[in-house]
Each structure stands twice: as structure tokens, then as C-alpha cells.
Design goal:
Layout: E1 3-9, E2 14-20, H1 27-32, E3 39-44, H2 45-57, E4 62-66, H3 75-87, E5 95-100, H4 102-114, E6 120-125, H5 128-134, E7 142-144, E8 147-151, E9 159-162, H6 172-188, H7 197-201, H8 204-209, H9 211-231, H10 246-255, H11 262-281, H12 286-297, H13 308-315, E10 326-333, E11 336-343, H14 345-360
Parallel strand pairs: 2-9, 3-4, 3-5, 5-6, 6-9
Antiparallel strand pairs: 1-2, 7-8, 10-11
The protein binds nicotinamide-adenine-dinucleotide.
């Protein structure tokens, strides 16, 4: 199947290959084509447990295992990995390979961009979300204190290797999480993704039984992201569109202490931001029905507590904000977006009231 999409960054004269392969056994060949002093593989304990034979077959110098979960995006976890590399005298001609979901990708991206002022990096995403979103575009980050991604860099990898074989072991909640980001592309950048609405509503696993369809969806999503990042790598404005659903989504994720997977909070965030879009731009709320049905069918229920003032105060720390005003991406219609809208707190309260009635009742 080997085929590629390129992410072309003119300013840096970089053409980053996103390589699609059918079988994980091919990964070794790609890694062998890079000259390096040490090959350092980073993954998490869960991925290692599932893919031990494959990972051990790669000729690595060092293997570093993170605990699974968002906690690995902490400053302590970052420093522990840096100590590990320093203790082994890993130099800047090394090659780092991040095999895992968005957590491993984000923290290893940050390590690669800061260790010895930058070490080459390859992403091998293993969750649907990391294939269609987090491994593409060069954002790295760790969380600090209560807030997500407060410390980070833009750092592009040498290559991204996508192998849908990894999806075979993904639990349903993680598939749904990736679908959340895919639906976001549908509402903001590529309407044709929403033609699959009915399939998203039915059993999410079913989509991935059909390998050709799954690959088409993954590629469509990656194309959306690539086009935006090529135009606005450092998020001066256009790239904000990818944050649709994330301003409220991230705040809920922090408030509910990562109770669901990331993309599920994005679905909840899209519901809230569509309600806001309706209040401010008359966005057609019938679009919400399909998201609500997905939440219901998959028994996604938020815990009952819902303190709006606390959720809004978390939103103020969102890194998209300028000073403490809350900036948000809204929709006038499907794929007709408004970027950087500075939202008034009263309207936010009104929208969260409606959101609470729809989602928590
Ligand atoms: N950098 C970006 O542009 C960007 C974009 C979106 C999200 N993110 C970040 O990504 C993170 C979420 O990523 P995620 O959803 O991939 O979560 P994750 O990395 O926590 O992975 C979810 C779970 O799935 C397990 N897992 C990974 N691959 C598996 C496989 N093939 N089979 C079975 N289990 C597997 C992991 O061990 C983990 O327990 C968040 O921290 C979010 O902030 C970053």
C-alpha cells in the first residue's frame, strides 16, 4: 500500500513525509534509513505490553517507557526522561521515535525539541486520534499545574508513519475519541466527512472493519490538517480553526479530571460551541442532534456536578486566549467558521446553561 502525503513547510524548506503502511513489520526498514548515533524508542507501558514483539524487533539503543495516561505529560515525567537520556550520554545525533497515542507524541515531541537544543524525531501514532490529529502539525506540549499544554513548542518530525494495524487493539472509547476529531474536521473543513454521519452513529467499530473506508477517513482528516498547517504552522490565525470544540472541551477535560478520552470531550465541547454559535450566529442547531445521539448511544454521561464559574475560569487559561479574554472558534454554518471570537462571559453562561440541560439531564 505504501503511499504518502507530504506536509510542506515553505519557510523552513521542509517536506515532511506522512507514510502509510499496511503492516507494522515495515517500520524497521524506515527507521534503518536514518543515520543516527543512538535510536531511542519512547512508548507507554500499555502499548509496549500490546506490541512488545514488534517493538523489541526494532534495533534500538534504548527503550523508554512512560506510564500510560495524561499524567505522563507532566513536568516531572518530562524531567525524568531527560535524566534518563543524560545518564546514558545520548547525544544530539540520536533519533527519537515516539510510538503511542497523543500523550506519548506530545511529551516526546517536547523532549526532542528541547534536549540538546533539538534531536530528530519520528512519530508512529497508535491511536486513531494521534493518527488523524496530534502526530501531524508539530505541536508539542506538557501540562502544568491544573492546565493543559501550558508549556510546549512547535517542532516538526522527520517523518510520520501511519499503520492502521494498531487500531485493531484500540478500545471502543479510544476509537470514539478519534471519531470526535474526525467529526470536527467534517464540521469545519470538509463537509464530505459528514456524509458518514449514520456510520458514526452506529457502532464505531464497524467503520474500521472496512479497511478501505477507514483509510479514506484517516487520509481525508490528515489532508484537512495538512492544508491548515501548511498555511499557518504557528497558529497566527487560521490554525485556530482546528480548535473548534476545544475551548470548552479542554475546560471540561480539566474540570472533570480527564474522566473521558480527549476526543469525547471534543464532542462535548462541539455541542457547547454549537450552542454558542446558535446564540451569536444563528447556527442551525439541528446539527447537534447527531452529536447527542452519538453521546447517548455510547452512554457518555458527565458526572452531575457542573459549576459554570469554575469551568469559565479554567477557560481563561486556555493558551489561545490573549490576556484573559476568552477566544473561541464559532460556526455560522457547516464549514463557515469565525476565528478568534472574543466571547462575552454572560453569553458563555447562557450557552453553558443550555448545554447543562441538554447533556446532563
Ligand atoms: N499535539 C497536538 O496537536 C494534539 C492534538 C490533539 C490532541 N493532543 C493531545 O493528545 C492527547 C490524547 O491522545 P490520545 O487520545 O491518543 O490518548 P493517549 O495517548 O492517552 O492514548 C489513550 C490510551 O490508549 C492506549 N493506546 C495507545 N495505542 C493503543 C493501541 N494501538 N491499542 C490499545 N491501546 C492503545 C494508551 O496506552 C492510552 O492508555 C492529549 O494529551 C491531547 O492534549 C495533541
Amino acid at each position: 500500500m505504501e503511499n504518502r502525503i507530504y506536509l510542506s513547510l515553505k519557510r523552513e524548506e521542509k517536506n515532511i513525509p506522512i507514510v502509510f503502511i499496511e503492516r507494522i513489520e515495515k517500520v524497521g526498514e524506515y527507521l534503518a534509513s536514518f543515520n543516527c548515533s543512538d535510536l531511542v524508542i519512547f512508548t507507554d507501558k500499555m502499548v509496549y505490553r500490546l506490541y512488545k514483539d514488534f517493538i523489541d524487533s526494532l534495533s534500538y539503543s534504548y527503550l523508554y517507557l512512560f506510564d500510560e495516561g495524561e499524567e505522563s505529560k507532566s513536568i516531572e515525567s518530562y524531567l525524568k526522561a531527560i535524566d534518563y537520556l543524560l545518564d546514558r550520554n545520548v547525544d544530539r545525533r540520536a533519533l527519537f521515535v515516539a510510538i503511542g497515542g497523543g500523550v506519548v507524541g506530545d511529551v516526546v515531541g517536547f523532549i526532542a525539541s528541547t534536549y540538546k537544543r533539538g534531536v530528530r524525531l519520528i512519530h508512529i501514532p497508535t491511536t486513531l486520534l494521534s493518527m488523524v490529529d496530534s502526530s501531524i502539525g508539530g505541536k508539542t506540549g506538557i501540562n502544568y499545574k491544573l492546565y493543559k499544554n501550558q508549556i510546549g513548542t512547535f517542532y516538526q518530525p522527520e517523518m510520520i508513519i501511519i499503520c492502521p494495524q494498531f487500531l485493531g487493539t484500540l478500545p471502543k472509547s479510544e476509537v470514539l475519541s478519534g471519531i470526535g476529531e474526525i467529526i470536527k474536521y467534517g464540521f469545519t473543513l470538509d463537509k464530505s466527512i459528514l456524509d458518514m454521519k449514520d456510520r458514526f452513529e452506529n457502532d464505531v467499530f464497524e467503520i474500521f472493519q472496512d479497511k478501505i473506508l477507514a483509510m479514506q477517513l484517516i487520509k481525508k482528516s490528515i489532508n484537512c490538517k495538512v492544508k491548515v498547517v501548511e498555511k499557518d504552522e504557528k497558529e497566527s490565525l487560521l490554525r485556530e480553526v482546528l480548535n473548534f470544540g476545544h475551548t470548552v472541551g479542554h475546560a471540561l477535560e480539566t474540570y472533570y479530571n480527564y474522566y473521558f478520552s480527549h476526543g469525547i470531550f471534543v464532542i462535548l465541547g462541539m455541542v457547547a460551541e454549537m450552542i454558542l454559535s446558535n446564540i451569536l450566529f444563528n447556527f442551525d442547531l439541528s446539527n447537534l442532534d447527531f452529536l447527542i445521539r452519538i453521546l447517548e448511544k455510547n452512554s457518555i454521561k458527565l458526572p452531575q456536578r457542573f459549576e459554570k464559574s469554575q469551568i469559565i475560569s479554567i477557560m481563561k487559561y486556555d493558551k489561545k486566549n490573549i490576556s484573559s479574554s476568552i477566544r473561541i472558534v464559532l460556526l455560522k454554518d457547516v464549514c463557515d467558521y469565525v476565528l478568534g471570537y472574543e466571547i462575552n462571559e454572560d453569553i458563555l453562561y447562557e450557552a453553558l446553561d443550555k448545554f447543562e440541560k441538554i447533556v446532563l439531564s
